[in-house]
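seq as requested:
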Amino acid sequence: MRKPKQTLSLLLAIAMFITLMPALVIDAAAYAVTIILPPTLVYDRVYHDDYADGCSVHVVSNGRSGLCDGKTGDVIIPCEYDAVGDFYENLAGVVKDGKYGFVNTAGQLVTPCEYDYIDYFSNGLARVGKDGKWGFINTAGQLVIPCEYDAISSFSDGLAGVLKGDKWGFINTAGQLVIPCEYDAISSFSDGLACVRKDGKWGFINTAGQLVIPCEYDDIYSFSDGLARVRKDGKWGFINTAGQLVIPCEYDYIYSFSNGLARVEKDGKYGFINTAGQLVTPCEYDYISSFSNGLAQVRKDGKWGFINTAGQLVIPCEYDYIY
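struct tokens:
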């Protein structure tokens, strides 16, 4: 006969705890922040992420998403959206009925949910897609570059790649087509140069649209530290920004330079070259890793060891495996 009394006591204790509890506290030690939500707000799911103006807490209620301030518990964005993104440049993407828009940190809908796709804001502009066409909006939600392109890239060096039909060109931040849509493929600009492909061959243009390195290579990578990997007739080498072949196309594959050295492969064996093209480590290893703390893992005849940046075998290849 004591069981009903115990049950009643337990219920009273729970009720008193809820009444006296000032807030629901979730200690997120990994983020060095304490999230506080008022006990009157009950959510199906709570998770958080940091953003520039504080700590936003993603909340879900009845299948709808919103955001709360993790420090005060105040509602930033009501739970009325299908999904809510994180804040970038004080704007967060939201989805409602399958369409995308943006809200500000006050929860106001700055850009109506009318787009089929949106991207994060970067330098005051965000890509948007509508009815299969692409353009850009500004942080005020204004469509500053009309949705008239079949595809667009983000801005880099003040220019964005645009696709019209099956050809690519570039526009500036004012939406002007400064480089005509005449290329089969392009890359973003890096160090003032962009990769372009025409008639199956690759070259480089500058931001003025001038072809500074002719389209003569089968494959290329963007420039890094003044050098770019290029492939011609199945072999790889490096060119400089003047288009000069400073390391001949003689390797089966090459990797980008790191700390003045690049891994190279020749006839199934690996080694290292320096920026002058000199073979610092002969192509004699079955595998070679990138350098870390001045050492690289190497494998030869099924055994592992380490070499230094001078190519010297400082730890002999005598181990079955190394970490």
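The chain has one helix and 34 strands.
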